[in-house]
């Protein structure tokens, strides 16, 4: 009996190892093909092309032509620096990399535009390992963090759920924001989130998406070194090779027309506008070693 069991276990182990090795071989071949495609790709199929040619003023005009309201806003650098000093724990959390100021700026802008009160119930959508909701909680703002990677369900202030299927009752929150997260919502999760925002927010509730990635064409940006065999491409979009990361598989950049049709038309009773921050060049001068790119934000009120 024991001999038979050992043989069965060995057989199962061999099949398991063979299956794992086969999966790894297929993944290796897939990535090798992608790297080949990247190496022979055209200039417009690469991230650097858009980083070097993106013109926020042109995009602003195209948004307006697509009937999306756009409002210019000036960021007060001295106020940001004072806020940064007040939120030193957030600055420390993001310190040490080229996106330090950008990440802090995204939270600053969400904080200012959402105009928190101590009566608010706030949700940090797609929070991941961020400490932002914890920081707000210490300031007596009732704050939750939601992410698909958390264990499913409501666990204290952590909510494990899809942002397009939030397991909370209607009218639960006053405010929500997404900092460098909305672009990662694959398939129709971006559209489903807008529907959930309408449902979850109380009357007069508001939410902010920053950055709102807008480019001249509609594309999905993906690293050639990530397995993209199951990563979808939206209808009407193209694949652009990401060059600043070796592992990120999906980042959605709307054209103004695609944003208007895919997202803005879904707002219904929510009043939304795109905020164009007009003085990021001053921030880049102030912080020359940093990557600062939050030209646009979507701000909505119910």
The low-confidence runs, each spanning 5 or more residues with pLDDT under 50, are none
Summarize model confidence as the mean pLDDT: 91
Helix-strand makeup class: alpha/beta
Within the CATH hierarchy, at the fold level, what is the topology of the largest domain?
A: Rossmann fold
Tell me what the CATH architecture of the largest domain is: 3-Layer(aba) Sandwich
The secondary-structure element order is: HHHEHHHEHEEEEHEEEEHEHE
Q: What is the count of distinct domains?
A: 2
Strand percentage lies at 15-25%
Question: Which term fits the overall shape?
Answer: globular
Largest sheet: 9 strands, mixed
Head-to-tail CA distance between termini: 69 Å
**Largest sheet, spatial ordering of strands:** 1-11-12-7-6-2-3-5-4
Helicity, in percent? 25-40%
Write structural notes for this entry.
With 302 residues, this protein is an alpha/beta fold. The chain has 2 domains: 1-40; 44-301, Rossmann fold, CATH 3.40.50. The protein contains 10 helices and 12 strands. Strands 1-11-12-7-6-2-3-5-4 form a 9-stranded mixed beta sheet, with helices on both faces. Strands 9-8-10 form a 3-stranded mixed beta sheet, with no helix packed on it. Helix 3 (56-65) crosses helix 9. The N and C termini lie far apart (69 Å).
Keywords:
12 strands; alpha/beta; Rossmann fold; three-stranded mixed beta sheet; nine-stranded mixed beta sheet; 302 residues
Summarize this structure briefly.
This protein is of the alpha/beta class.
Task: Summarize the topology.
Blueprint lengths: L1 H38 L7 H7 L2 H10 L4 E4 L3 H10 L1 H7 L5 H15 L6 E5 L6 H7 L3 E6 L5 E3 L2 E3 L12 E7 L9 H12 E10 L8 E4 L15 E4 L9 E3 L2 H7 L8 E7 L2 H7 L9 E6 L1
Parallel strand pairs: 1-11, 2-3, 2-6, 3-5, 6-7, 8-9
Antiparallel strand pairs: 4-5, 7-12, 8-10, 11-12
Helix pairs in contact: 3-9
């Amino acid at each position: 009996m024991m001999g038979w069991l050992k043989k069965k276990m060995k057989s199962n182990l061999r099949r398991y190892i063979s299956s794992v090795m086969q999966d790894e071989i297929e993944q290796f071949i897939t990535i090798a093909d992608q790297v080949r495609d990247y190496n022979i790709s055209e200039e417009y199929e690469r991230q650097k092309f858009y980083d070097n040619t993106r013109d926020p003023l042109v995009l602003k005009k195209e948004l307006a032509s697509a009937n999306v309201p756009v409002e210019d806003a000036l960021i007060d650098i001295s106020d940001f620096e004072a806020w940064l000093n007040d939120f030193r724990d957030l600055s420390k959390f993001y310190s040490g990399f080229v996106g330090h100021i950008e990440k802090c700026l995204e939270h600053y802008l969400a904080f200012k535009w959402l105009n928190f009160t101590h009566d608010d119930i706030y949700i940090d959508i797609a929070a991941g390992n961020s400490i932002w909701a914890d920081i707000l909680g210490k300031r007596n703002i009732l704050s939750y963090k939601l992410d698909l990677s958390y264990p499913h369900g409501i666990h204290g202030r952590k909510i494990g759920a899809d942002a397009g299927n939030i397991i909370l009752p209607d009218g639960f929150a006053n405010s929500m924001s997404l900092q460098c997260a909305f672009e990662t919502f694959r398939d129709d999760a971006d559209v489903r989130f807008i529907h959930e925002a309408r449902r979850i927010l109380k009357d007069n509730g508001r939410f902010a998406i920053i950055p709102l990635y807008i480019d001249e064409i509609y594309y999905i940006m993906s690293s050639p070194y990530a397995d993209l065999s199951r990563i979808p491409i939206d209808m009407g979009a193209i694949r652009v090779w990401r060059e600043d990361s070796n592992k990120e598989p999906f980042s959605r950049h709307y054209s103004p027309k695609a944003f208007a049709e895919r997202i803005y038309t879904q707002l219904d009773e929510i009043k939304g506008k795109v905020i164009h921050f007009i003085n990021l060049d001053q921030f880049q001068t102030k912080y020359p070693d940093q990557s600062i790119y939050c030209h646009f934000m979507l701000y909505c009120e119910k």
